[in-house]
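Give me the fold.
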Amino acid sequence: MIKPLNILVCTDFSSFSLNASKAAEKLRSKCDGKSYHLHVSEFSVMWDWMPPDYIEGRFEMDLLNNLRKKMEDEIQKTNSSSEGLIEIGLIPTIVGQQVKDKKIDLIVIGHKGQTGRFHLGSIAEKIIATSEVPVLVVKDNFNIHTIGGLIDPNGTMEDIIRWTEDLALTFGSQEKIISLFPDIASRFIGVGKFGFSTELLSLTDHQKDIIKKNLNENIRKKLKLKDSHIRIDFSVERKVSYHLNEILEEEKVDLAVMKKHQSDFMEKILIGSETRRMLEIFKKNLLILPS
């Protein structure tokens, strides 16, 4: 069972944020932790023409009163005992400070905001990119039947496996471990070393089966996995995330657990490349762990 978590829900009071709030409350109720709802109103360039005394007086008072009312409404809709926090300033900075002050273990955000967009430079991406704790991105309803841990055998896998196993146990869900290699690979333990110039397309199906078998055995042994379903495959797609998305759909994964940064030959899969694409194309929920 997952340990008690301090959860921070970042909200802009959109329908996407409401879904995130409901998911956070469902998780909090199962792990018996604390939750906080945070809304940050960023100073806008349009404030520059306002007299300082007006901004710090009536305008700010009206703004905060309105935001507090929205916060109360959202918390009430989720039947949560969450504490509401209203701040004014730069969102990533304030989120980071609240994570430290409240000893937050997990941030929960909606996939989109009031603009209905999730793109380069969006608030959600800024939070993910700068967060030192895991971030749960809620896209779909939070009925979790199958959880997929996306691993890189050449990198650190233990934290991905731990979150995958704990969440599967907490929600009574099926657990699946998935590893997808790009068409250039290296350091397959037990089958020798393939240099970065070796393309998997040149391997025979028999050679690929041997590689898959060895990887499966090594992953099970290293992570002490017994009954977990492990799927290992090779991708000929230039953008690995599209192939990975197909596998997640085939496996009917409701929640995928992955890292913000990978290592070794997957080192370039950061927020901003494959991770961003997964955020864009995967239709279900994503838990993104820090490096």
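The CA atoms of residues 63 and 204 lie 65 Å apart.
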